[in-house]
Specification:
Blueprint lengths: L1 E2 L2 E6 L2 E6 L9 E4 L8 E6 L10 H15 L3 E4 L16 H7 L11 E3 L10 H5 L1 H6 L3 E3 L3 E4 L3 E6 L7 H4 L14 H18 L4 E6 L13 H6 L1 H6 L4 E4 L5 E4 L7 E5 L18 E5 L3 E7 L3 E8 L4 E8 L7
Parallel strand pairs: 4-9, 5-6, 6-7, 7-8, 10-11, 11-12, 12-14
Antiparallel strand pairs: 1-2, 2-3, 5-16, 9-10, 13-14, 13-15, 16-17, 17-18
């Protein structure tokens, strides 16, 4: 049903209220996902994964299935770079099956997957990943450029970070980036910033979590994304965001901040990892760094979030919790 520029969409048993605004329009798509009857919310986070099962993608997927069943997860978040090396060629690209449908087959992973786009996705046909045709092939697939997911106790703000990075425009090298729907770039970025800022200001959620592909704070190979540090980070600070979750660096990482309560989490270990790619970082901020494959689980109530990093064998690497009363890691 379509009404007033919006559509009611049934997806995996969920009723989604979706804005049909154009990518440059000043309105973000808004989705709803209810918490469990006991008021809790559980989900997994994985990024940089789509390699047709190679580079231990299948092994990570298997352990995600195990942990997903144990936690009775509600959904999965993908932090981007969903299909290597150059996104999808179109809606019929077999990579969608080979890297997604045929890999994440565990019963516990048959839940909605909320995806952002990464820079590798922009090297292919971006509209293919945004197309409802993929949702028809696999109802789990949810992908927009930027959007909001409201889960009652937490609100998630998914941000399309690739267009922020100057290098992809000024020095793309051998790659052809698909900027349809992004250009004119300045207008697009201005709208994204205004939309995210407005949405964060208007949020009454107990938890505010921002998800993007690119790093803000990272000791990995890519390091800090200076464009996000300059343009997005001030908005996150001003609106008291709890977590910024990203991929891009192929590692698992937990960094806190000495000048805000934001915690920066990298979950980019879905397949190929980069061994020994670590930069120096302030010890008081760096809580954990792992240069291997794995993923993150999050279990939330209104008052506490428990976070755990797992490796490719499902072993716990690092765990901590955040409480709203203390708003501090332990």
């Amino acid at each position: 049903m379509v009404k007033g520029g919006h559509r009611l969409l049934f997806l995996g048993g969920l009723l989604l209220w979706v804005c049909l605004a154009s990518p440059a329009a000043s309105e973000l798509q808004r989705l709803q996902h209810r918490v469990k009857p006991d008021g809790t919310l559980s989900f997994l986070v994985v990024g940089d994964w789509g390699r047709e099962g190679n580079y231990n993608q299948s092994e990570v997927a298997s352990q995600m299935g195990v942990i997903g069943e144990k936690l009775d997860i509600d959904f999965v978040i993908s932090t981007g770079d969903n299909f290597y090396d150059c996104g999808l060629t179109g809606e019929d690209d077999p990579a969608f099956s080979k890297s997604f449908m045929d890999i994440y087959t565990a019963p516990s992973l048959q839940k909605p997957w909320y995806n952002v786009l990464g820079n590798h996705d922009y090297r292919g046909d971006v509209e293919a990943q945004l197309s409802p045709v993929l949702k028809e092939k696999d109802s789990r697939w949810v992908c927009f450029r930027s959007f909001i997911l409201n889960t009652e106790i937490a609100e998630f703000f998914f941000v399309d970070t690739t267009p922020f990075v100057d290098e992809y425009f000024t020095n793309p090298g051998e790659y052809n980036y698909d900027w349809k729907g992004v250009e004119p770039r300045d207008e697009y970025l201005s709208n994204v910033i205004k939309d995210v800022d407005s949405a964060l200001k208007g949020s009454s959620a107990k938890w505010k979590i921002v998800v993007g592909h690119h790093t803000i704070k990272s000791a990995g190979q890519h390091g800090v994304t200076v464009e996000l540090e300059k343009q997005l980070l001030p908005i996150l600070k001003a609106n008291k965001v709890d977590l910024y979750v990203n991929g891009h660096d192929h590692c698992l990482q937990h960094i806190t901040s000495t000048d805000s309560d934001i915690q920066f989490i990298t979950s980019g270990g879905g397949s190929q990892a980069w061994r020994d790619k670590i930069r120096s970082w302030e010890p008081e901020e760096m809580k954990f760094y792992y240069d291997g494959q794995g993923f993150l689980s999050v279990n939330m109530t209104g008052d506490q979030a428990d976070l755990i990093f797992y490796d490719v064998f499902g072993q716990v690497l690092h765990k901590w919790f955040i409480t709203k009363q203390l708003h501090a890691a332990a």
